Amino acid sequence: MNAVILYAHPNPLSFNGSIAKVVHEELEKKGASVLMKDLYAMKFDPLLSAQDFAGFHNGNLPADIAQEQKDIKAADIIVFVAPIWWSSVPAILRGYMDRIFSLGFAYEYTKTGPRGLLTDKKGLFITTSGADAKSAETSGMQNVITHSLVNGFLGFCGFAEYKGKNLCAVTTVTDEERKDMLTEIRQLISQFA
């Protein structure tokens, strides 16, 4: 099994960094060959340019997009690890999604509507938020995560199996509660991968 972790947090010592490390460890325990992509460390350019957009239509893709798409294509499972800021993922991950999961690669339009092309992959979105679970639900943030990232993105791209997990109140919980969250992530990866 080939796995790609798309990690998007500027601080490698953050709780998101701990989550990414746990995901990596658990995937390796399952026998996966794991490719960790720290988008900040890579200095990934999130800006979708006119040249990029033209390349989606004429097949002349910039080298960085071609390489990332090659890595995604080779993966059996893709795990996204990112915080939720202002009801969305960091701009660097959003830009990665725009540039890499493009028309003709991740989806296409047919006479009967859109069709996802990543049908041989599993996808998992692991997010964190400062809001507690009740606030995330009542503010609509949880719906944004579920509808936009999980169903709207992974589902739209045709992932064979996909799910999302948001860990709430990560900025205010105790260290013991964070350890419990990491245990929960270990179990999630063990069951999902």
Q: What does this protein structure show overall?
A:
- The protein has one domain (2-192): Rossmann fold, CATH 3.40.50.360.
- Helix content is 45%, strand content 21%.
- It has seven helices and seven strands.
- The chain has helices at residues 15-29, 50-58, 63-74, 91-100, 133-139, 141-155, 175-192, and strands spanning 2-7, 33-38, 77-83, 107-110, 113-116, 122-128, 161-167.
- β1 (2-7), α1 and β2 form a beta-alpha-beta unit.
- The protein is globular.
Quick take:
This protein has 193 residues and is α/β, with parallel strands linked by helices. It has seven helices and seven strands; from the N terminus they run βαβααβαβββααβα. The chain has helices at 15-29, 50-58, 63-74, 91-100, 133-139, 141-155, 175-192; strands spanning 2-7, 33-38, 77-83, 107-110, 113-116, 122-128, 161-167.
Describe this protein with a few key phrases.
two-stranded antiparallel sheet, 45% helix, alpha/beta, 193 residues, 7 strands
User: What's the alpha carbon Rg, rounded to whole Å?
Assistant: 16 Å
If you average the pLDDT, what whole number results?
95
Taking the sheet with the most strands, its summary is: 5 strands, parallel
Label the CATH architecture: 3-Layer(aba) Sandwich
Form type: globular
Question: Largest beta sheet: what is the strand line-up?
Answer: 2-1-3-6-7
Order of helices and strands: EHEHHEHEEEHHEH
